[in-house]
Records
---
Amino acid sequence: MTGPDLDSLRLLVLVDDLGSIGQAATALGIAQPSASKRLSTLERQLGLSLVDRTRRGSALTPDGRVIAGWAHRVLTEVDGLRTGAEALRTQRGARLRVAASMTLAEHFVPAWIGEVKRTGPDTYVGLEVVNSEHVAELVADGRVDLGFVESPGPWPGLSTRRVATDRLVVVVPAGHKWAGRRRPLSAAELADTPLVVREPGSGTRETVEAALRRAGAGGVKPLLELGSASAVRNAVIAGAGPAVISELDVVREVAGRRLVPVAVAGVELGRVLRAVWPAGRRLAGPAAELLTLAVKSGAA
């Protein structure tokens, strides 16, 4: 089945927001017959009736409203992708240079940068995506203005500010012996089990190491070291072994039962995500604006 195009999804969202095909067509700068044709094509592609068409006008069906809600989230993600890609593309000549660790770069930073761009469209933002340890190095060396890290630190020589929270989760594939387990894992069991892990210097790796040490269970036993959350996730799905990963990175896989979360007793896997910048330096201009937006977003 051919997937729906973004323009059709945007049209459906506008029909939901504005209450008519005609107004939605006007907002997109297309003729109403073209808009109606696009919606009919979308209905055929999805196999659903999305719009009730009557003499008094048009309104979304219950299925149409559900699809419009999902479409809105898709379009928001696409906007974040475009903003992040632009920031990556313009990093060398950027007025605001930013570095972020993987989880923050994937799930948070593009939205914050997008807001900076909305208030100051001429602001060039460059984004470098590296692990938390390298983010700190870039900030300390003055190669970026502001960094975002997920590692617990400490961060000598850097000022820090909480911008968000995250939770790590132990995951296994559906056929794993832990998948149907009723009793939570102990800290010792987790520490004794070889895990699929991120590379040293990763915030996720350091968070797990620190959590196990606090629980008195020693460190992580690496089964396989990989350089990204997606690589870790795919390795677990393929049956390589268990992993501890951000719950943000496995939402779809857990919902689809491709991965199963496993409870752990006595190990605190929550973490604080932080902004970092050189100690003693007062942020100004776009860097200060980005930090303010990030802090407000986390508080919300």
---
Amino acid sequence: MTSPTPDALLGPADVRELAAALGVRPTKQRGQNFVIDANTVRRIVRTAEVRPDDVVVEVGPGLGSLTLALLEVADRVTAVEIDDVLAAALPATVAARMPGRADRFALVHSDAMHVTELPGPAPTALVANLPYNVAVPVLLHMLDTFPSIERTLVMVQSEVADRLAAAPGSKVYGVPSVKANWYAEVKRAGAIGRNVFWPAPNVDSGLVSLVRRAEPPKTTASRREVFAVVDAAFAQRRKTLRAALAGWAGSAAAAEAALVAAGVSPQARGESLTVEEFARIAEHAPSKESGQQ
């Protein structure tokens, strides 16, 4: 076998031992559930199609289970960790378990939502086990901030995975679905059982694959303008777009005019529209010249 020895990765005993040595107890506040199964992290790396020339950014590496599996394959891995204790310990874990790859690893001790630059070459892939409470904003922030990220695979709560990958017309299609689709082609990429985590969560997890579009939807509206329409449309998702966009447009009549101009039925609801249709509505925003969104 040419692959690194299995004991380079963290098993259940290793994770608990590391956590005990660091005095770490996974917190619900940060949505921490550490992966304790080497086969699962290798499966994530395979599903992400990580290549030997990839520069991977990982958000929320925790004790390093996925980090080590990524380092087996990728050219470089940069991990972004907010937790003081975990951030301080991770470089030592990498050096101890994968000394030959330690120079390929970088750590950024920060809140991912505040990261605007990363050390080394631009990232080509994002692979992460995202805490469910911040999964969507972190994902959208990283895709927006780092346009070099071509492929993304995130593990999130199953319900969040469904929302991200939902198509127009689905009951769970909403703001995350549309905004993720602005950047990428999105699809479910598998399910993850609860028993591969410590502590075992009381929800199932799912993998979501996002492959960046060659370019965003063609529109004269800015991303911010398009997203403002999306937010307004789903803020009152039971209402027709004529009613839901009244606040955004200034009145229901102005919303209707914008919708008709965009070729969208004023009686439609947000859950039936594609990201391209939202972009067309944004192009016809009333008083767009005066800066109204």
---
Amino acid sequence: MQDIIAQLSGYGPMIISAAKALAVLVFGWMAAGIISGMVRRRVNASPRIDKTIGNFAASIVKWVILAMVLVAVLGIFGIQATSLVAVMGAATLAIGLALQGTLSDLAAGFMLVLFRPYKLGQYVEIGGTSGTVVDLNLFFTELSTPDNVQIILPNGQAWGAVIRNFSHHATRRCDLSFGIDYGDDADHAMRIILDLANADPRVHADPEPWVRVVNLGDSSVDLGVRLWCDAADYWGLKFDMTKSVKEAFDKNGVSIPYPHQVEVQKAG
């Protein structure tokens, strides 16, 4: 019995150290979340600072605190900070090779925040993937598609891809195309479209609405339409104008042709 007690007493300091380390780890993890949240709210509260920077700064603060917690936990087990630095220095090459993709994402994250090709809330297309920017942190960019699908894009891929920002400018050009029959009056059809455009308050007068014959197709005369509007009105204007032009054409006797197939039978 005494031998068992002696053996258990030998593990006492280790158990106490493990309990301390667990307490520091839990407290540090909670503190990292709370402090990073405070940083995010404080930075985002300023109207002069973009919310993208607030999220990125909060992410940096969280990871710095977690790194400090890790050093403190290792110190509880007797591993000094100087020894830790020496070990990390010796393992730098191996870690760099193993995490080169992650380090690339980290560096790309800083570049994205520095140059800010997109911000939170903007609708973008990155390397063929489209969505609204929900978050930008140290390692990845989060997008949300119009049908509410979450997309996680590593920052390294985002920085190295072609970025199309549909929300960067306050205005956008809405391009439409309508086909009319060869027997219809093209000038009459263009006047109908211009009247509808001028009557819509979302269409800007400068640059003025533009309607031209852009192509003579196989079965139709194609009319190109260019309308300038606020970026927020783009999709509503595009859908409404398409419907309005179709109804106006029907009302004014302008036909919209569709391709015809002619079957030719060879006499045997």
---
Amino acid sequence: MLQPFSEYIKIIGKGQKGGRSLTRDEAYHAMKMVLANEVTGDQRGAFLMLLRTREETPEEVIGFVDACRELIEPEVKTLTPTLDIGCYAGKRRQLPWYLLAVAVLANNGYSVMLHGAHEPGSGRLYASIALPQLGLPEVSSIADAKQQLMDKGVTYLDLSSLLPALDTIIKLREVFGLRSCANTLARLLNPTAAQFCVQGVYHMHLDHKHCRVNENYPSIDALCFRGDGGDPEVNGERETELFITRNGETEEVIMPVVADKWALKDKDMNVNDMLDVWAGNANSLYGEQAILSTLASYLVLLQKCDVADALSQARQLWAQRDKSATPF
């Protein structure tokens, strides 16, 4: 059982001259063995860190994603959201204002599936922590998620409920001191096979890699961009390249600067500040421009409209929100 996997380690680990990247088929079988726990801990660590050292190719990521999706329980596919959003980075400089953009969508007839994970000791504020305070209680079963999606138009499921084996790999950061390809795979997972999905990334050129992967799944319309801290949040303090993939082809759209000036780092990271802004009782220099820019980017994906129209709609929808109720 263990010998075949050592061949995959040899393929990527022989060095600059002797090694090569995995084919899509090899990557699929290798990741399937990792997720099925058919490798030793040493083998898993060596494989993941060798990939980390030279970075995964789009072809390898596609094979890994194929393996991940195959292992998702069929019951998950009974959830039928319009939009899938992975929330895996966690915020460390600003609050997760993109969640209020999601709330606006949910309150206007869009059904949204959120999923994410958290890394122990990261010091980041994850969506799973903020959402209950914003009015979306935690659920841990597919049945409860389905009911929540019907009642509120949005649900959040932790990766530990969707694909526990991948969640285990993400949490190995505490052991390695480094993230692995699992963080990329989780963002690309789209576990319910929703028609539309959003992927926020952090590092330069990762958005290009995501595009190459998204192009291999033409039935899904995908939006990828370098979000604040790596989460699916557009920072309106700078231009953001939105990469939208439809029918296997990617186009680039520029979300312009909408902020008048730069905001300082949020020292408190208090979710109650988000509730105050939603209720109209307070202003946030960073938060409100992030909500509008993020909401507009989602609308560009969902409605196939141009940026100017999306920004206009975002401002209108934000102004019309129900300030007397909680966001979710």
